[in-house]
Amino acid sequence: MTTHRIRVGIDVGGTFTDAVAVDATTFDLLGQVKVPTSHHHEDGVAHGIVEALGRLLEQTGHAPEDVAFLAHGTTQATNALLEGDVATVGLLGLGTGAGAAFTRRLAALAKLELTPGKRLPLTYAHVADPEDRAAVERAVDQVVRGGAQVLVATQPFSVDRPEGEDAVREVAAARGLPMTAAHDITSLYGLRKRSRTAVVNAAILPKMFATADLVDASITKAGVTAPLMVMRCDGGVMSLDEMRRRPLLTVLSGPAAGVAGALMEERVSEGVFLETGGTSTDISVVRRGKVAVRHATLLGKASYLSALDVRTVGVGGGSMIRISGGNSGSGGKVAAVGPRSAHIAGLPYACFASAGDLTGARLATVRPLPEDAGDHVVLDATGGRYALTLTCAANALGRVPEGDFARADRDVARAALAPLAAALGTDVDTAATQVLDAGVARVRSVVETMIDDYRLDKDTVLLVGGGGGAASVTPHLAATTGREGRIAAHSEVISPLGVALALVREQIERIIPGAGQEDILAVRAEAERAVVAQGAAAGAVEVEVTVDPQTSTVRAVASGATELRTQDRAHRADGAERLRLAAASLKVPAHRVDILAGTPAYTVYGTELRRRLRGVRHPVRVVDADGVIRLYAPDARVDTTTVGSAPQTLAALVDAATAYGDGGVRAPALRLLIGSRIADLSGVLDPHPLLALARTELEGRPGDEPVVAIVEERS
């Protein structure tokens, strides 16, 4: 079954705007276009977005009304901060007594450095009593005279008592001034960090407001009736209204779009995603089917912005090769690869030249920019000057698969590497290997660190490459580490694919000392309501709850589709294939693997391992209908029940596996397979809220529907 409805994802990059159309039922890629990003058009980047959409519809033969979902990712907020193109912020500190001393110190946020030599433009005023409207108006007048274009109100403990910040909001609204209230940004304590995050958010508000309005109007004019969504930095999307309130959530959303594409298109459940462009590689982690997220650093300071944990290495497909010694004879060595790229040097890649262009090629070294070292390798040949790059080495060694975006004629690539090999006193294969080793070494170091940081199963980690330069890094990394690796399908458009396939997402955080069952359920419900309000179908929302007893933080992350989606994929793994995959992951022969349970969407496989020092363990793998391992459990108990019987069954399972000790009560890590969902309840340590959340997951479902419980005792 197919449908005429499509999902459109648009990724607005610094140079190009990429757009893709995906079948709304099968998720198959139907079309892709690339247009220059329209930074200097009177309508800004909105013009490029509409142009890309128009070309995409024409290419795929669809009408605007066929668009069921439209989302875009943008680097505009990131670029505004990187370039220092921000509005002047009027910061109003509120309160009296001891708290006032802390808010007055926030005037020092004007020292935040945007770019070398350029600081955040900020003017400060204090209001002792925010209920005194006249005093608030005088403070607003003061910061406006100081050049403020946008306001921030902040008060100690406003997450509990927001009335003061809301009073300032009323005055700002009456004046037509955009404003950020600190408690809108986060509900976590920490006046300085909360205020700093709010100030950075406010600084980009006017620019993002203008862009949002232009894009919205342009899309509507084009005849698209689907609501416009915007990519967030944690891998989900949000409504345009939410973006207008918290544009800071779009910062760092570029890497998030790529890993979102890997999650949905490649169905990665445990691995490392490497998105390689021409200049750099962004590295991120997928653990148990979810992106790794942490509070980001902004302008060199900690913030309350929850963003993808992405670590960037200055190595990409266009990274230039640097050598020491052996410039004209043998005896040199590869000193480094990158961070300077051929794009910055303004040179074409040697491997994409023709054989004739490389006639008479001789090696030379240059300074790509005046401040660079003079050890960057180029070829001077009949066709002109060319850069030797990581992509050239990958093609010379045969690492780039047929049909890949970075594929070049291997014979040409080898001819390009020949002068370098002579300078190194070796053959082309060895020279290419040395180049790839040098380029990938820094990436490998970061990958190994992230595997350790997130305690990924080192035996099952999958390396997935995305981006136009994926083949220059991921295949060699996989080969040298012995790990399984692959390049994502349509890797050159993995970011717009991620935008097209992303789910609506919202995160709610509260600091609640001694949080009880009702508190935790209330945070969960708030997160669920937030994504439904932004267009997610209520029946498709999943909520993951985590309770950190050390910080008393209750966190709920909700995600859901804007419409109920069913995939009609051509490939479905049969029982034999799923068993083979489970056995390979468990590292035992297939005859030692048992089917422990199943639902229409998942099959649960397990085995028994006996180790002299570790005793008996029962590792478990959950495999979906596509043959993707969706859940790894190193030692777990699996039970099958029904929705009607689950409350009693789960209570007994949790009671039996709960640990009591000096560190307090530790309920087991519980996950439920219900229909097409995996409800992950492992973030809750207290048995009573855990069981209450489990009951919430079961609500509204038929009493005879099967439920599979996977229980891991905590060490």
What would you say this structure looks like, in words?
This protein is α+β, with helices and mostly antiparallel strands and 715 residues long. It contains 20 helices and 40 strands. The strands form twelve sheets. Strands 3-2-1-4-11-12 form a six-stranded mixed sheet. Strands 13, 14, 15, 18, 24 and 25 form a six-stranded mixed sheet that branches. Strands 8-5-9-10 form a four-stranded parallel sheet, with helices on both faces. Helix 4 (133-145) packs across helix 5 (163-175). The chain is globular and about 80 Å long. The two termini are 48 Å apart. 50% of the residues are buried. Residues 564-571 have low confidence and may be disordered.
User: What sort of overall outline do the alpha carbons produce when their principal axes are compared?
Assistant: globular
Total count of helical runs of at least 4 residues: 20
Helix content range: 25-40%
**Global mean pLDDT:** 88
Sheet of most strands: 6 strands, mixed
How many angstroms separate the termini?
48 Å
Report the C-alpha radius of gyration, rounded: 27 Å
Q: Give unreliable regions as ranges.
A: 564-571
Strand arrangement across the biggest beta sheet: 3-2-1-4-11-12
Count of DSSP strands: 40
